């Protein structure tokens, strides 16, 4: 029998933690062995390399600028007046309606290019059931917050023909490469109106 009693650990009298022996294999994998001592970083305002070029690509062959101090030079707006900013504008503060208009215009523009390049007929709605193969136009989207995969691909139809979205079944395609926001034209069947089985993919 051991004459030494086991010490009880209390908040007032805590039991000392066991220390790892130098011969113990666990000492090699302790946090101390993987945490090298480093000097604390300086404050950003006290940095010594302010304005220093740390990387460059290519070489500049003696740039020069000559002018008459700006006299006689009048700047002109580039592009249509309705597309130019005439007052201060907060970046990334666009209205949702304006963003929708730009995206819809982009789908229509690339849809016309797809139709001419691949000699396609008129596009159908992605929401209407169709037993025969139809051609639809839209933007690739994801039905979840994660990464795009074969089970999460949806097609957001264009405003002129559809105005909705539908999940895509890509199992009949031999190969494909899609990303969220991509404008594509698809050929497939939508027998139930709830899922489109894609048989052909048209890209720009």
Automatic annotation (TrEMBL):
This is DPOA2 polymerase. It comes from Cochlearius cochlearius. It is found in: Nucleus. Residues 1-12, 19-42 have a biased composition (Polar residues). One of its GO terms (biological process) is DNA replication initiation. It comes from the Eukaryota. The keyword Nucleus applies. GO terms for cellular component: alpha DNA polymerase:primase complex. The keyword Methyltransferase does not apply. Keywords: Nucleus. InterPro entries: DNA_pol_alpha_bsu, OB_DPOA2. Residues 1-42 are annotated as: Disordered. Residues 100-203 form the DNA polymerase alpha subunit B OB domain.
